[in-house]
Write a structure and sequence with these properties.
elongated, 11 strands
Length: 445
């Protein structure tokens, strides 16, 4: 039940109700109170107290006040909000009836009032960036993401497939500059494009709390990648970065390579599905030869082949930090397989290698097995969907069998036809090395 408001006596210096309708003394008295938390949606002016939308109450009366319409005790200066809203606050106004505030609050909840309307901003020491985000959304003309407003205190924030676009990314970047809670951020598939990526890159120069960042499927292009790499040369907080399906192209790999030689803190990098060719392989190989930070690298579904594949593997041979490498679906061919075998001969760090679907035939498998026979650190090897036939798989299995220092526990030959000779050797190795798991297709006797 709404409490009755007692009319106040006219104050000195105020207008009476004549000519403008009864009730003006009351409104004039209420107008002297401080503005409420919502500010002035009409945009008539700005007060000193900021609301969650980045605006504040106007000192002048709005047309609603001039008409004598009902207004709240905190917004005598022209807000559009009904009196019920202010009676529900319970902090600055007394409802006058026991339980009346709770009854009205329940009614408000049933009407679907959102948290966006009820929560207060963080004030001048807002460590979530809430007030900056709401003001930026209004400035850029984008709708605030309610999920972000509800989870900006969490350590992990996932905003996949939200259609942010460049302007939405700019508003979000302004909020994340001041946010100290989020350490894992997923913005994949949001059409950020080059302009949006420039805003995110600017945020990364200020934010030192985000350590895990996913920007996959955002069409960053060469310019977007350049802006991001420039930020990562200054930012040493991001340890895990995913750029899969970002349409980087060969031109962007120069900036990526330069970043890998300077940034020593990044541990995971995903560059899969990015049309990287032979030239990209050469640049990345040279960078990996000098990098002392990357531990996991995904280059699957690219075009690393020919001389690019060979030069890339040379960088792997001298790298002393990389532990997980995915090169599946690249077309390394026999020369690339042979070069990788030589890299495994000298590399003493790599633990997981995926060479599936790389056009490796029998000659390439034989040359690859020579280097594998001397490797001590590799624990998982995937060679499935390569035209190496059963003879190639058997050569690799024999290299593992004759290597007393081999640490392999997973050997994958999926989708390759295998004969009885392979099956017999695999069965005998299970007795000697029970920890070794051999995955293969449908062996035939």
């Amino acid at each position: 039940m709404r409490p009755r408001l007692q009319p106040l006596a006219p104050q000195p210096g105020t207008m009476s109700g004549r000519g403008l309708g009864h009730g003006m003394p009351l409104l004039e008295a209420l107008a002297q109170r401080k503005p409420g938390p919502w500010g002035d949606p009409s945009g008539g002016g700005v007060s000193k107290r900021r609301g969650p939308w980045g605006l504040a109450a106007a000192p002048a009366r709005s047309p609603q006040t001039a008409r004598g319409e009902e207004t709240g005790p905190e917004h005598g200066s022209g807000t559009h909000l009904p009196l019920k809203y202010f009676l529900l606050q319970g902090k600055e106004e007394d409802t006058g009836e026991p339980g009346g505030g709770q009854e009205e609050a329940n009614e408000s909840e049933s009407e679907g009032d959102s948290d966006l309307e009820r929560e207060e901003p963080g004030g001048p020491f807002d460590l979530t960036g809430r007030s900056q985000y709401l003001a930026a959304c209004e400035a850029y003309g984008v709708v605030p993401i309610s999920y972000f407003l509800h989870h900006m205190h969490d350590s992990e924030l996932t905003l996949m497939h939200r259609g942010l676009g460049p302007q939405g990314a700019q508003a979000l970047a302004l909020a994340l500059m001041n946010n100290t809670s989020i350490v894992k951020l997923n913005l994949s598939d949001n059409w950020l494009n080059e302009e949006g990526m420039a805003a995110i890159a600017g945020m990364l120069k200020e934010n030192c709390f985000i350590t895990d960042l996913d920007l996959s499927d955002n069409k960053l292009g060469a310019k977007g990648a350049k802006a991001l790499c420039a930020a990562l040369m200054e930012n040493t907080s991001v340890r895990r970065l995913r750029l899969s399906g970002s349409e980087l192209g060969t031109q962007a790999t120069k900036d990526v390579a330069d970043t890998l030689m300077i940034n020593t803190k990044m541990e995971l990098l995903d560059l899969s599905h990015n049309f990287l060719d032979e030239e990209a392989g050469e640049r990345l190989g040279s960078a990996l030869a000098e990098n002392i930070g990357i531990k996991e690298l995904n280059l699957s579904w690219n075009h690393l082949r020919g001389s690019g594949a060979v030069i890339f593997t040379r960088g792997i041979g001298v790298n002393t930090y990389l532990k997980v490498l995915d090169l599946s679906y690249n077309g390394f061919g026999d020369d690339g397989a042979a070069a990788m075998g030589e890299a495994l001969r000298v590399n003493g760090v790599l633990e997981e290698l995926n060479m599936s679907n790389n056009r490796i035939s029998l000659p390439g498998a034989l040359r690859f097995s020579n280097g594998l026979g001397e490797n001590r650190t590799l624990r998982s090897l995937s060679m499935g969907r390569n035209p190496m036939r059963s003879e190639g798989c058997l050569a690799i299995l024999k290299a593992v069998h004759t290597n007393p220092s081999s640490g392999l526990v997973v050997l994958d030959f999926s989708d390759i036809h295998l004969n009885k000779d392979f099956e017999d050797l695999a069965c005998s190795m299970k007795e000697v090395s029970p920890q070794l798991c051999i995955k293969h297709g449908n062996p035939r006797a």
